[in-house]
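Protocol step 4 of 6: structure prediction from sequence.
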Amino acid sequence: QVRLVESGGGLVQPGGSMRLSCAASGVSTALYTMRWYRQAPGKQRELVATITTSDSTNYSDSVKGRFTISRANAKNTTFLQMNSLKPEDTAVYYCSLPFLGYWGQGTQVTVFS
């Protein structure tokens, strides 16, 4: 059974940092492109960051220069380092293995003053 489990969310003040983790089981994520999405209340789910099997990365314009996606293949884990957080980054963050259609359950990130 394939599972993706996000962790690392919580409360942070504007300008702060947070690192999200996505631990996978039942699949070797090193073989696949991984993505982070987010969904804010009342908004559509938004693609935030992508990392390919060759570790090429891509980011949405809204997070470029502030967020970094990475992976630790030995740990079967994908990360999202978020710096200079803004209130508009508040959302539930999901990791995804798009080729196989798997999603995690999400982790809440709240940026507040």
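Step 5 (inspection) to follow. The mean pLDDT is 97.
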